[in-house]
Design goal:
mainly alpha; 3 domains; 3 strands; 62% helix
Length: 173
């Protein structure tokens, strides 16, 4: 029984589990006992095969830890442009909260926004140029922009001509 939840503190109140999903594995008896506990916590459960645990854990790390890494990176860039760490986070949180709200109410693919989804080549070009001076951020941006481009292509958000231009930009190093 494993909760899909981030715990910033060890002594979290039981209500932190309300609405949370728990992965289950083990015997039928163990799963039934776990489901009873999860129900009392107002959570949800799903069964996972042992061989799928590495993918499950990778997905959880990406959704939680990597979001923190992205926010730290974005905050760092805002700090380089003159903001304090506190200001940077205050600037970014409404954006992130709005994005999560959109994903919750729609889905990841239909809520994709930003310069790639808009086909804004000029903006991506200027962002890449600015980020070249910050190699770790530049490398992360390239990888994530490439994934964003693939999503935009799959959802027909951009023209094939713009997709080719973006691919060329993102493959230039």
């Amino acid at each position: 029984m494993h909760p899909v939840q981030a715990f910033a503190k060890k002594n979290a109140a039981p209500d932190v589990f309300k609405g949370v999903y728990f992965s289950l594995e083990g015997s039928t008896k163990a799963q039934q006992a776990s489901k009873a506990i999860i129900k009392k916590l107002s959570g949800h459960s799903f069964v996972i095969k042992e061989e799928d645990k590495p993918l499950y854990h990778a997905a959880c790390s990406m959704a939680s830890d990597f979001l923190i890494v992205l926010l730290e990176s974005a905050s760092s860039l805002l700090q380089k442009s003159g903001n304090t760490p506190e200001q940077a986070l205050k600037i970014l949180l409404p954006l992130v909260q709005g994005t999560l709200h959109n994903v919750k109410n729609f889905n990841t693919r239909s809520t994709l926004t930003g310069p790639i989804a808009r086909g804004d080549i000029k903006t991506i070009s200027s962002q890449l140029e600015a980020l070249r001076k910050h190699p770790p951020h530049y490398e992360m941006f390239l990888k994530l922009a490439s994934q964003t481009l693939e999503m935009a292509i799959q959802k027909n958000k951009i023209s094939s001509q713009n997709a080719k231009i973006f691919k060329a930009l993102l493959e230039e190093k």
